[in-house]
Amino acid sequence: MMKRILTAAFAAALLLASSSHSDACTNLIVGKKASVDGSVICTYNCDSFGFISPLSYSPAGAHEPGEMIAIRDRHAPDGVHYIAQVPYTYAVTGLMNEKQVSIVETTWSGRPELRNPEGYLEYFSMMQLALQRSATAREAIAVMHNLVQEYGYNATGESFAVCDKDEAWIMELIGKGPGRKGAVWVALRVPDDCITAYANTSRIRQFPQAKKVDKKLGFYVTADGNCMYSADVISFAKEMGYYEGPDADFSFREAYGNLTVNSIRSCDARVWSFFRHHYNTEEMDAYLPYLNGDSSVHDSLPLWIKPDKLVSYRDIQNDMRDHYEGTALDMTADMSAGPWASPYRNQIVSFKSADGTDMFRERPIGCQQSAMTMVCRMRSWLPDAVGGITYFNMDDATMVAYVPVYCGINRIPGPFRQENNRITEFSFESAFWMNNWVANMVYPRWSAMYPDLLEAQKGLEDYYEAQQDAVDAKAQELTAGERAQYLTATTIAYTDQMMKRWDKLAKFLIVKHNDQVMRPSKDGEIVPGRHTSPAYAPAFIEAIKDQTGNRYVRPYAIKK
What is the DSSP string of 370-422? Predict the structure, then answer.
């Protein structure tokens, strides 16, 4: 009888991953020649209401023959599946392993009939397993293929950014329905000088094709090595009646994850806004009719673009906080932003007016329902333990400071640990609740209070950036064991610093903005002086005036 051995840390990481719920997420991807310093970068806003996503950790280790891994199926909460362990697994912190391989995801539903409820794996457990078993992005793609071939895939359509210190890949995958193991998928290498993004839609259409399957790998690989895809990705679509044209014209998106007008506006618009930050805005604005449902000129966004100038990881952190500011979809610029020009909305994405008209709100990259946010940065010129950094925090990217977490650490800082973050219980030891304490004060009085949060956020992130060269240099001088201890202590110190700064910020906001006025302040401290009243947003004032006529106009100002 085969043994079922599983370390507690490994089990916790896999079970936590299997129970995560992230059905509306955003990924940004940067090739190494598109970044300022040669980093490969990928990001993840993990979005859905009502859940917490702590930072997980599983240590490296050798494993006995016959050892099994328990995988909990979140679609069947009482069910646990067992899969075979491999002889050696790499350490994984969050979604980056010790070799600087990172995998992030975004979900698109695709064809619901292609979910296989008997499959053992859903996307998050598959990502964790691939990270533990892969030294490169290419290897991770092959591992995911092999896992679904052997154990089946029970989720719907999924896009992955699979990156390492040299390459960035995008991979789209969907199952094959009840009773069928495996999945159909395509993976493309992002050109090194380009950037791309995913936001809950399939984006790969036509792709380069190879002449024959690689017998060793079991899937197609093009001659240049920049495209890989499952052997039956086209034939299966024909079998199911999803496609009937020539192979050369086959589009993965049209066959398995075609867009709707709603998904274009709520999903592709996020990609458009990201591209607009880094490309000619006039050219990108030519896609506005497409975002508004008119496909007569453009029927899709570019899969990737070459940015006008090189992109820094700080640029990407700020891109994760985007609410369409400065665009035709700016969420702060009309009456729906309220008196304080807030980019946040209380409504669900779709709703109805009083007369039954179907309505919607914009769905930006930065949103209040994020459980966690991360920017993964992989640097090939440094030892792996130092080169890989996940800038991480819990809650909305707009409302938090990104904390550097080195991939060479050996334990998770307390505020990011699962036991300190419970969705039903506030705790001052929880990064999630500390951040939400501040965020939920700022949301309703955005224009008045956000500048104070921004000052604290920028101050911390500037400090972390200023320390980085010294930390990198010192870490390289140490032995492997000393390096792990040093990077762990540094990451813990950074996290503690963030928690103390946010505690101070929360108390400062209450005092400065008590009773909806503003007391004077300087450098994050209240100073003597007379309070002021923050002004309503101009668009809100004009909307009130238009709706109420002379009701709120002072009598002497009424034109006779």
Answer: EEEEEEEEE-TTS-HHHH-EEEEESS-GGGSPPEEEETT-SS--GGGSGGG-B
Residue 244 in domain: yes
Tokens (6 digits) for 214: 């690689």
> 41: which residues sit within 8 A by CB, 6+ positions away?
28, 29, 30, 35, 163, 311, 313, 316, 375, 376, 377, 378
- Answer for the pair 31, 192: CB distance below 8 angstroms, yes or no: yes
3-state secondary structure of 50: coil
Report in angstroms the alpha-carbon separations of 329 from 77, 184, 500.
Answer: 40, 35, 36
Asked whether residue 295 falls in the same domain as residue 397, the answer is no
Residues 546 and 449: their CA atoms lie apart, in Å, by 27
Low-confidence ranges of the chain (pLDDT < 70): 1-23, 74-78, 347, 560
Quote the number of domains for the chain: 2
Q: What is the pLDDT of residue 262?
A: 87
Quote the tokens at residue 513. 């903005």
Backbone CA torsion sign across 494, 495, 498, 499:
negative
Residue range 114-140, pLDDT digits in tens:
999 999 999 999 999 999 999 999 999
The answer as to whether 86 is a domain residue is yes
Q: What is the DSSP string of 468-534?
A: HHHHHHHHHTS-HHHHHHHHHHHHHHHHHHHHHHHHHHHHHHHHHTGGG-B--EETTEE-SS--B-P
Q: Indicate the residue type of 142.
A: A
Question: Is the Cβ–Cβ distance between 279 and 271 less than 8 Å?
Answer: no
Residues 391 and 257 in one domain: no
Question: How confident is the model at residue 7, as a pLDDT?
Answer: 43
Measured between alpha carbons, how far is 475 from 469 in angstroms, rounded to an integer?
10
What pLDDT score does 15 carry?
44
Q: How many angstroms separate the CA atoms of 46 and 22, rounded?
A: 6
CA 522, CA 166: separation in Å to the nearest integer? Answer: 44
> Is residue 193 in some structural domain?
yes
Q: Which of 405, 547, 544, 401 is nearest to 97 (CA)?
A: 405
Pairwise CA distance, residues 144 & 171, whole Å: 10
**How long a stretch of residues is the chain?**
560
Residue 558 in any domain: the answer is: no
The three-point CA angle 174-179-185 to 5° equals 20
Q: How far apart are CA 164 and CA 234, in angstroms?
A: 28
The parent domain of residue 459 ranges over 382-526
Same domain, 394 and 300: no
User: In this predicted structure, what is the pLDDT of residue 359?
Assistant: 87
Rounded to whole angstroms, how far apart are CA atoms 533 and 450? 15
Predicted TM-score of the model (pTM): 0.94
What is the predicted pLDDT for the residue at 557?
Answer: 75
- Residue 253, classed as helix, strand or coil, is helix
Q: How many CB atoms lie within 10 A of CB 5?
A: 13
